[in-house]
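To: structure subgroup
Subject: Chain for Friday's discussion

All,

I'm putting the inputs and outputs inline so they're searchable in the archive.
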Amino acid sequence: MRNRLGLIYSILVALILLIGFWWVYFLVHEGENFEKLQFQRHQTDIATAYYMFETSSLSIDAYQPMLEQHFPHLQLKMTDAGLTIVVDPEIHQAIHEASERKQRMFVTEGAFFILLLLAGTSILTLAARRERDFKRARELFLAGATHELKTPLACLRLYTETLQRPELDSSQRDRIYGSMVEDVDRLENIIEQVLSVSSEENIGSGEIETFDAKNEIELIVEDISRFTTENNALIRLNLQDSCYITGDKSDLEISLRNLLRNAVIYNSDSAEISVTMRKNTGRLLISVADNGFGIDKKHHKRIFESFQRVDNKNAPAGSGLGLYLVKRAVESLGGTISLTSNPGDGSTFTLDLPATEDKK
């Protein structure tokens, strides 16, 4: 079905462009035909003027006023061969220039028309591709999200049934309880990302205030310390003196939480993460660097789009929403996000935010 629609669309585009080129070709030749038609009319007028002179008894001097009255664009000339009637050279040149102007006008209009057709066709093609990519990404997301939801749910069901066994000792029960909490956290994270995308227009709609970025970073790292400890990850902070930014605190929290979680998840068993903050000519640069799997350069732009994931056999399945939410949150703060990464060399995400004067 999709191939058939693509074929029909290609045929329609080809027909539209063919009509456009034919229209330009027709108009250009209309300009040439205009000049030919005017010259043919002049030849007819010359023949008529000769006939009138030959059938009249007027002299050349007496015929001149009548010729100017009926054919002002013709002139009488005496040559060795006798009387000659010709078109006024200025009239002839004016017709030629008018023909050239018409041709230039037709070419310009035609070229503009074809450009409009090409632009419209490109927009339609881009829209169709984006719709196709979005549907494909959404299907992959639904498949991935379903798998991600089913896995912890199945584990929770198994753990619940296991806890009913009377022969379990306290250490085994504690270990199972810990695994259950981990799966619940995993479910919460997936649901939070889906809900965030569903209400993404609310990003940046919270309370706008001036706050200390250093303090917020420390609170966020402390808040996810249990998650990092359970996953044997180490976070090192290298923060300069307090630096203030203006915006919604939750946007900075969304950005750093997702970046730190990704740095832990898409990594080996011993993740080492560095969070650096520094001020540079009125800008605040916050970098999150890890020693994880890394990302190929061809994926650097795509991973910030919704429902996009990078296939990595070493990485767990994800929703493909985290970095999309990061980008939206950073833009809400008036900043940008950049990535430096290569496969096997880890990744460094840098937030470039506008700094604010220190609070008094």
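Points worth raising on Friday:
The chain has a mean pLDDT of 76.
The chain has three domains: 2-132, 145-200, 207-354.

D.
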